[in-house]
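can u pls check wat happens w/ flavin-adenine dinucleotide
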Amino acid sequence: MAGRLVIVGAGQAGFALAAKLRALKDERPITILGSETSLPYQRPPLSKKYLLGEMTFDRLLFRPESWFADNNVEIRLSAWVEEIDRTAKTVRLQDGERVEYETLALATGATPRRLPEAIGGELAGVFTVRDKDDCDRLAEAMTPGRRLLVIGGGYIGLEAAAVARKLGLEVTVIEMADRILKRVAAKETADIMRAVHESHGVTIREETGLHRLIGEGGRVTAAELSDGSNLPVDLVVVGIGVTPNDRAAAEAGLAVANGIVVDAFCRTSDPSIFAMGDCAVFPWQGEEIRLESVQNAVDQAEAAAAVMAGGETAYDPKPWFWSDQYDVKLQIAGFNRGYDETLLRPGQREGASSVWYFREGRLIAVDAINDAKAYVTGKKMLESGINPDKAALADPASDLKTLLG
Ligand code: FAD
């Protein structure tokens, strides 16, 4: 039997790795070290139904506590790994204890970027949205009539804005770029989502940055914006992206470049150390990429498990993602990086549409807005390398199925 696998990070990827190894009948001893106080849980509902109060926390857990004992997976919570000693093959916890490993897996996720203290980032009433505790605090503060400023028009910020409106807060979203969703989606998708938010009463101010937050008695009361205006606020959600948790890896001398660098087999520059999920940068289609999604965390962890169990299949992601805002379900298949052409296809139902991304004439991604058929068909096309006829695609009367060939 192989020696102990220590998994750092009890999140989506860390749990998926342990579960997959057991599914593969790999019986090596496994210890998961997680810094949070809860058993592994899914994060996506945090900024959706959980924040809204429509889902209880127990429904977010991947497995009950008994699963870990039944599967001989030791799980240690509130266990923060400070340091990796690659020579001794140990990790050091915050209390000085050392845990030995034969194989180490880094599944440490990412940390939301915060506002600097100098511009009010430490004031009470300023929130980030990453874990259960963040969302519990935010949910408590989201009472009807309060004024919320969301900084950053990405998925997390927009989902928080949608929840806040549903709860009866006044919501303003500011976005420094010339439009929301600039980093992740095409203009067509952004235009649709902007219109959805505005129809629900959210004020969206693009090309508007934050100059500083103003506080009274240590609590945020206003925001000074880059256009010189002053906005009274009671709460602020900061949704300006994340940074991968790669500090311990970097200090241990592993290759790190905005994430822990791994090869296609999820191995770091040290053959006994793997990395996966939000913290890992991996090669794909000639580029080094890092994905922040459930699909990537699970599939990369499962690929690593297969390699640990003796397989040699490279991780070849089939990216997909989703976001729920009000009654809009945005589903994304593929990875739109480097797109040079987009096409908007109106859906057959009211409020449904899809945006198709091409790079050098090749279909690379699709955003489906309340359009499950476009999502499913687009995903199939991407998986089978089908390039749909663009004129037919743009025609809402054409049947998507026939474009599958
Ligand atoms: P995580 O799940 O973040 O787990 C990492 C764990 O490691 C954390 O518990 C962290 O505390 C712990 N850790 C870090 N450093 C240490 C250390 N030194 N020692 C011990 N423990 C450590 N994706 C989608 O596909 N669709 C969505 O709709 C979606 N919505 C999201 C909504 C929210 C609010 C958030 C925060 C994320 C969302 N995501 C979504 C992204 C998705 O949840 C992440 O990509 C996924 O959780 C990544 O898994 P991971 O295991 O890499 O990291």
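Residues 8-14, 33-36, 43-44, 46-47, 80-81, 107-109, 129-130, 156, 245, 248, 277-279, 292-295, 297, 321-323 surround flavin-adenine dinucleotide (CB under 6 Å).
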